[in-house]
Design a protein that fits this description.
Blueprint (H helix, E strand, L loop, with lengths): L1 H14 L3 H17 L10 H27 L16 H10 L2 H12 L4 H8 L3 H24 L1
Helix pairs in contact: 1-2, 1-3, 2-3, 3-6, 4-7, 5-6, 5-7, 6-7
Length: 152
């Protein structure tokens, strides 16, 4: 369960800018999964099912934060640096966050979390072809953003 929890946290960290929100999203996803465990039809797909719950929770948190930010129009930005992160990790996170969600999610789930294309397709409710294309396009966009960062 610890390995699964770490995967969830890593995924949330790529989707959400604030560490506290990541922790909240993982905790809420685990709680919702526990409450809905009887709705899981195929226990072999538990991890993909749980990841789908987390992604939905992250999206909901982002919507809430956006609505709150728009209404408040104030607040300080949190420092997103991770103390023990390797050189370039923050640039990579920033480049990933800058990608449109439709490219970022498949790329993150497949490359960073190691899910197969078919699992990513189920999680995101897309065809396998669409997932493959979005991973390909996401890589291109990410590479271009990182090359641009190096030039600056």
């Amino acid at each position: 369960m610890r390995a699964c929890e770490q995967k969830l946290y890593n995924t949330a960290r790529m989707l959400l800018p604030c560490q506290a929100d990541c922790e909240d999203a993982v905790q809420e996803a685990l709680f919702k999964a526990w409450a809905r465990l009887d709705s899981l039809r195929d226990t072999g797909r538990f991890e993909a099912w749980l990841m789908r719950i987390l992604i939905d929770e992250c999206k909901m948190l982002l919507r809430r934060r956006r609505a709150h930010r728009e209404s408040a129009l104030t607040g300080a930005e949190e420092d997103f640096r991770v103390p023990d992160a390797p050189p370039g990790a923050e640039e990579m996170r920033a480049a990933l966050r800058a990608l449109e969600e439709k490219y970022r999610l498949p790329l993150l789930l497949h490359l960073a979390e190691g899910f197969e294309v078919v699992e990513v397709a189920r999680m995101l409710r897309l065809s396998q072809g669409a997932v493959k294309w979005r991973i390909h396009k996401g890589r291109q966009l990410l590479r271009a953003a990182l090359e641009q960062e190096v030039r600056i």
